[in-house]
Design the sequence.
């Protein structure tokens, strides 16, 4: 069986003309279409991290008040447990009311401050944005 290519070569040789060069264009072939931005996991990481950061900014004062209440309860329970331990060992009881202080005067540092959550969300925004930029370039 004779191939089409060999027939073309024979006809060119018999005509006396040199073989033609392949067609060269100045423009590159069209690139594959990029997948949509929403197909990237980094995009969704960026959206969720930015939303968390915005949410912390909006509810920050309310969260701080609630966190203060939770931590006060925790510290009160810890003191009560310590007093129970003292009594179980046989030490003299301590009146917890004497050691109590006004919550408005004593504002202790938070056990879980809001800036740690904000820093974590900001790190998520920065990392996701960087990786998304790297993926889309």
Sequence:
């Amino acid at each position: 069986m004779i191939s089409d290519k060999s027939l073309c070569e024979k006809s060119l040789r018999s005509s006396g003309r040199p073989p033609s060069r392949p067609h060269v264009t100045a423009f590159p072939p069209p690139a594959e279409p990029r997948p949509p931005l929403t197909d990237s996991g980094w995009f969704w990481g960026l959206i969720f991290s930015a939303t968390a950061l915005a949410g912390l900014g909006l509810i920050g004062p309310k969260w701080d008040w609630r966190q203060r209440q939770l931590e006060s309860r925790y510290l009160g329970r810890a003191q009560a447990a310590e007093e129970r331990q003292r009594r179980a060992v046989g030490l003299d009881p301590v009146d917890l009311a004497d050691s109590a202080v006004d919550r408005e005067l004593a504002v202790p540092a938070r056990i879980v401050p809001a800036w740690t959550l904000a820093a974590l969300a900001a790190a998520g925004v920065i990392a996701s944005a960087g990786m998304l930029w790297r993926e889309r370039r």
